[in-house]
Amino acid sequence: MRNLSYIAIVCGVVLAVPGCGRTKIAAPDVQTDNFKDSQYYQSLMGLSAVTTYGNFLNSLGPADRVKYINKSVEEGPPTRIFALKPAYERFVNDANPEVAAAAKEALSKVPSAEELEAAKKEDLEKLKPKQ
To answer: Pick from 77, 76, 100: which is nearest to 88 by CA?
Structure first.
């Protein structure tokens, strides 16, 4: 009888343990600003940043497109802004006039090749050790 009660207890524990402590992983809310910001920063990373950034902008509504086009210009160093030029050009003829205006404004802030080289040289000078 004693062994039977131990077996019953062990069986009860074995059956109860797998259900304990389970938490459901909720899908992220894709409409939140935090989610969109994380997607924005991820789109700017990697070797194909122009493509992923352009695809990110395509996935947004017009108001958010304007927001993230402006954000990329405001936050970006000249090298990034220069690299994103094809992505801005992609939205110059957007159906929404605000998006098109934001893309045109971004293009106006893209540095020329000479300005880009000057900025790179300036950055290299900053990195050199002072003697």
So the answer is: 100
Query: Three-class SS of residue 20?
Result: coil
Tokens 């045109």 belong to which residue? 104
* 70-111 pLDDT, tens digit each: 999 998 888 888 989 999 999 999 999 999 999 999 999 998
With H, G, I as helix, E, B as strand and everything else as coil, classify residue 77. coil
Evaluate whether 43 touches 53 at the Cβ level (below 8 Å): yes
**One-letter identity of residue 112:** S
* Rounded Cα gap, residues 3 and 80, in angstroms: 72
Q: For residue 79, which amino acid is it?
A: T
* Entry field: residues in the chain: 131
Tell me the whole-structure pTM to 2 decimals: 0.71
pLDDT at 1: 56
84 touches 76 (CB < 8 A) = yes
CA dist list (Å): 25 to 2, 22, 28, 54: 42, 9, 9, 30
